[in-house]
Amino acid sequence: MMSWSSARLSGVWGACVVTALLMACGGGGKPPRPIQVQPVVTREVHPVLKGTIGSEADLRGVEPILVSGFGLVVGLNGTGGDVLPENVAATMERTMGLMGVGQKDSFRGTALEGKTPLQVLRDPHTAVVIVQAAIPPGAPANSQFDVIVKALNASNLEGGTLWTTDLRLGAPAVFEAVQARAIAKARGPIFINPFSERGHETEGVTQTTGRVLGGGWVTDPFQLELVLDSNSHSRARAVVSAINSRFPQGPGDPMQTARGRSVTDAGGSIALHIPQRYRREAPEFLALVGHLSIDYTFPEQQAKRLVDAVKEEPVLAEDVSWCLEGLGNRVLPFIRQLYEYPELAPRMAGLKAGARLGDSVAASPLKQVAKTGSGTVRTKAIELLGILDGGPTVDVALRELLEVNQLEIRIAAYEALVRRVTRIQVERLRSMIEANPDGPKVSPTRLEVLAQERWPRRNFQGIERTMVEGKFFLDLVPFGDPMIYITQQGQPRIVIFGDRVDLIKPTLTSGLGDRLLISTQVGQDVARVRYAPANGGQPITGEVPADLVHLIEYLTHESTPEDSRPGLNLSYSDVVGVLDAMCRGGGTLAAFATEQDRLKAQVLAASASRDQVERPEKPGDEPILLHNAAQVLQPDRPREPKVPKIVPIEPPAKK
Questions:
Q1: How far is Cα 311 from Cα 340, in angstroms, rounded to an integer?
Q2: Phi, psi angle pair for 304, to nearest 5°
Q3: Most exposed residue of 195, 418, 501, 513, measured as fewest CB within 10 angstroms of its CB?
């Protein structure tokens, strides 16, 4: 069968022959005008990938987008209000004036009430910051991302909250400079790295630099664009049809997934919209689009060809997996041929495609890999179990993995269970909303937020979740040895593994630069707490039940007339710092791990993995290990526990 490119070339050659014959015959009249022929681009791709969108088109707009702006931080502990560059000060005064700062009755009950813009800039409890972020490629409207804040006139951003800030393309621009397009906003409490005091700083995070976790959101998303190699209206229509057939417009989608451009674009450009259901999986969606087959006439034949190819050449595993997923559920019988394939790469290609297509048959072989695999293959299998339905046996298998004495395995199992319980909660809420058609309408984004706010422990996944004072999620995972896990990007979370984790008795722990002291005594069920505020206020003393959950709630709670329970109203980063100090000082038996520790563990596991080997060239040859960095990497030296300072603690005042 002649390919599309060959047919096009044949037609061009035929036209050239006819033109030459006419000229040779000396036909009368005006000479024919030359026909402009667009060159046909032929890419060098593996034969099995020919006919996919990625083999005939480029995707534009997939690079991370730099956005920035000048923002205002309030709530500092007297560390702000320093001198600003004149152009920045003028910019902020104008911005606050447009916001209504300084006008009568504006911002009642806030830090800006009754102040002029100039007074706000000189206030030691406020600071001007540069806000920066890299928006992920293809991020749709309302998708969230982390932002970085850098102080311009403050020595410390601890305790600060970023007010709503417009984020524009490129570097921040001062007043009277050309203002770029605003495509996002940011606001929220600032997370300061609590480990900087002991030399374990996260890159880019210091006392004058911090993050707002999940604090940015897209307001005006960039348009993704597919540009075909060859200008052809018919080919562009075929690509649009293939994309929209595979990704039809669903709930929350304002438009079709793919739309052809106008005639002025010569037919080679296609606008691409990320569907709502892929809002948190934009890279996966883009990979799928690139591997979609433009011609869906015989998907079963294509699937057989793909399966045969990956068996013959396992190096194609990643591409073949996306291609098989793009063909949809009709080709599951062919995908299942790979589930028990003896060679690892083809097997994982099939399991990945099957799991992402929701094939419950993939659950059993995935559980086997999750239990007995090694390196990143094992964590990948656990991740795939998180997106697969597969029934309650999947939850049981993941709960068992929570007790494995490997950090990356425990966290991967926890994240998989979080994904499963979130999906169940979303479906439950959606059913409740659909059962009441006269009730309020809830967007898919809002529905997901509601589904993550609170989980009772009685759920089958076994994870209990509460939102603590609107500052972070507290997840209780009553499996395995005691451990505290801290997230440092996205939604702030503190995760406590193990059943009730009590404080050690007796012990004395200091934290927050010795402004906080926590002591326990043998025979007492409470811990005594003494806290000296950073602003030099009166020290606060109190008692709290001697376990981690009650301690976290006490550290975070803000006493109000509506809820007069005692508390210190500490920020997320302060609470993280206290928990780290307790673990290092022997105040609890729980291990302490951060998201950064998990990433390091994953890298080490990948380096030490012997799963990826080069296939022998001839029968009887020994497999060749591609790399084994574990042989040259030196393990991290064990961290010596910090001995807490012994400081006299005053007994709590009698009530």
A1: 12
A2: -60, -40
A3: 513
Domains held by the chain: number: 5
- pTM confidence score: 0.80
Parallel/antiparallel/unpaired status of strands 493-497 and 472-477: parallel
The beta-strand segments (E) located in 116-229 are 126-135, 144-151, 161-169, 182-189, 209-218, 224-228
Q: CB of 205 within 8 A of CB of 211?
A: yes
Largest CA distance in the chain: 116
Please report whether residue 602 resides in a domain.
no
Residue 118 is assigned to a structural domain of this protein:
yes
Residue 67 pairs in a beta bridge with: 133, 169
With 0-12 CB in 10 A as exposed, 13-18 as middle and 19+ as buried, what is 86? exposed
Of 218, 239, 255, the position where a domain reaches its end is 218
| Residues facing 544 on adjacent strands | 527
HEC string for 325-394: HHHCHHHHHHHHHHCCCCCHHHHHHHHHHHHHCCCHHHHHHHHHHHHHCCHHHHHHHHHHHHHCCCCHHH
CA distance 82 to 343: 63
Q: What are phi and psi of 222, to 5 degrees?
A: -75, 145
435: pLDDT strictly greater than 90:
no
Residue for token digits 């046996």?
A: 393
Residue 184 three-state SS: strand
Parent domain of 238: 57-61+223-291
| 101 and 182 belong to one structural domain | yes
> Do the Cβ atoms of 551 and 526 come closer than 8 Å?
no
**Would you call the peptide bond into 506 cis, given omega within 30 degrees of 0 as the criterion?**
yes
The Cα–Cα gap between 340 and 517 comes to 57
Q: For position 615, what pLDDT does the model report?
A: 44
Residues 188 and 238 occupy one common structural domain:
no
68 forms beta bridges with: 132, 168
Mind listing the pLDDT tens digit for each residue in 51-100? Answer: 999 999 998 877 888 999 999 999 998 899 999 999 999 999 988 888 88
Q: Does 312 lie in the same domain as 267?
A: no
Tell me the two tokens of residue 140: 């749709």
For Cα atoms 566, 567, 572, give the angle at the middle one, nearest 5 degrees.
165
Mean pLDDT of 551-563: 93
